[in-house]
Write a structure and sequence with these properties.
Layout lengths: L2 E4 L6 E4 L9 E3 L2 H7 L4 E6 L4 E4 L3 E5 L8 E5 L6 E6 L14 E4 L11 E3 L15 E3 L9
Parallel strand pairs: 3-10, 10-11
Antiparallel strand pairs: 1-2, 2-5, 3-4, 4-9, 6-7, 7-8, 8-9
The protein binds zinc ion (2 copies).
Length: 147
């Protein structure tokens, strides 16, 4: 079932048509996500371009000081400053390079959030946070099959 979301000012909206992608729905505890969100982390899902329809013209800044060490484009609404997606400028890992850019959607955009199927960078979880029940726990970056 397609889901739609928009940033706070409405300048950017995203529709995801292929709900199969939510199997890779991930709660990320990395420091980059915490700084970007102002929270304890973010829920993210990696997508191919054809899986989403984005309306609006997001702005971008390139973050070259990420937890993974790979530069990322961080795309945000020029109206409200809300971050809508990330894009990897290069492979997700050195051992598993991806030739095509992967979009990573910030799931906070959507009113209903599918439960994350995994947590990543769980070593960076705070002492007071509890493990998400039933979710796979990954110490570092989760790399989906085929990436
Ligand atoms: Zn906005
Ligand atoms: Zn993160």
């Amino acid at each position: 079932m397609p889901i739609q979301g928009r940033c706070n000012c409405g300048a950017i909206s995203i529709t995801i048509n292929n709900d199969d992608v939510f199997k890779n729905n991930t709660f990320c505890h990395c420091l980059s996500c915490r700084k970007q969100s102002g929270g304890a982390g973010t829920i993210v899902v990696p997508l191919e371009d054809e899986d989403i329809v984005m309306k609006g013209e997001p702005k971008v800044w390139v973050d070259d000081d990420t937890t993974t060490g790979f530069p990322m484009g961080r795309w945000y609404s020029g109206g409200c400053g809300w971050y809508v997606t990330l894009s990897l400028k290069c492979g997700m890992t050195e051992s598993s390079p991806s030739s095509s850019p992967v979009m990573i959607i910030k799931m906070g955009l959507f009113e209903v959030l599918p439960k994350p199927s995994m947590g990543q960078f769980v070593k960076r979880r705070q002492d007071w946070e509890t493990e998400l029940s039933g979710a796979e726990q990954v110490d570092g970056l989760f790399v989906p099959e085929g990436a």
